[in-house]
Amino acid sequence: MAFVFKPAPRPVSETIRHIACTELTMAAKRARTTNPAASPLHRLRKHVKKTRGLLRLTAPAFDDFDLENKALRDAAAGISGLRDAEVLHVTLAFFLGEGPAGQAARKLGAALPAPITQPDPQAVAHFGAQIEAVHARVPQWQFAAEDWDLLGPGLACSLHQAQKRMKAARKKPTAENLHAWRSRVKLHWYHARLLREIWPEMMLARASAADALGEALGQHHDLCALEATLPGPLSQKEAAALGAAITARKQMLETQAFALGARLFAEPPEAVAARWGKWFDLWRAETAAPGA
């Protein structure tokens, strides 16, 4: 099943279980591959992120949310560190130009740990076992609501958190605050994708904006990680040159992010949830009609 809610008459709760099973099945299958190099770690983690995004939408009506969310978070954490070196090299590549910053970037790149090309089989196997344990519980997931009553409160809650974290990041744009905001931006991206069929033209534009914002904040986070490696093997002058280039890039991304975030999260969460709920009900009624 695609990562999207299906039209009536399938109950929303059934769709949630189907989507979760699909994502977790793919994650477990990739983890079991006999060739670890054929299962890029970002794909394994993406299946987990999508499932956690789905569950956040149901959290107010799902008593086992904390249990399952923690299980998925712990599984992803076990393999997240394996990509750190790769991310540093990809981020550093942006600065491999001419001038003092470019020269410093090349020197730093030569000293950084090489990206891991072969994931640790034990770590990936442990990840797979954790995912399979969650997958086995999916058929027993029960929700205290149905239809939009199952989805609307979770949507409003995640939007509240996104607005609150955006405000905190604007007031104090630390790496931690911006990264915390990004996690809720990514949630909103998943939610817009899940609900895209209720009005594709509107929802796809919303998802695209959330994706662009999440990418800008993700690049900012990667720059902060790169900045934390300085001075490393660099002289004070070299570190200053590269650090200045990193700071300029971060400031540009912050400007873009806050401008886009102000538009994306301009409305009260309850208003967005109510409007999407009306679109959802219309879509369900239309798709349930004879001949639809």
Poorly predicted tracts of residues: none
Q: Output the helix-strand order.
A: HHHHHHHHHHH
Instruction: Look at the helices and sheets and give the structural class.
Output: mainly alpha
Q: The CATH topology, please?
A: CHAD domain
Number of structural domains: 1
Overall form: globular
The percent range for strand residues is: under 5%
CATH architecture: Alpha solenoid
Cα(first) to Cα(last) distance is 20 Å
Helix content: over 70%
CATH top level is: Mainly Alpha
Mind describing the biggest β-sheet?
Answer: none
Tally the beta strands: 0
The gyration radius over C-alpha positions equals 21 Å
Mean pLDDT: 92
Q: How many DSSP H or I helices?
A: 11
What characteristics describe this protein?
CHAD domain; mainly alpha; globular; single chain; 292 residues
What does this structure look like?
- There is one protein chain.
- With 292 residues, the protein is mainly α.
- The protein has one domain: CHAD domain (Alpha solenoid).
- Helices cover 74% and strands 0% of the residues.
- It has eleven helices and no strands.
- Helix 5 crosses helix 10 (236-264).
- The two termini are 20 Å apart.
- The model has no long low-confidence stretch (mean pLDDT 92).
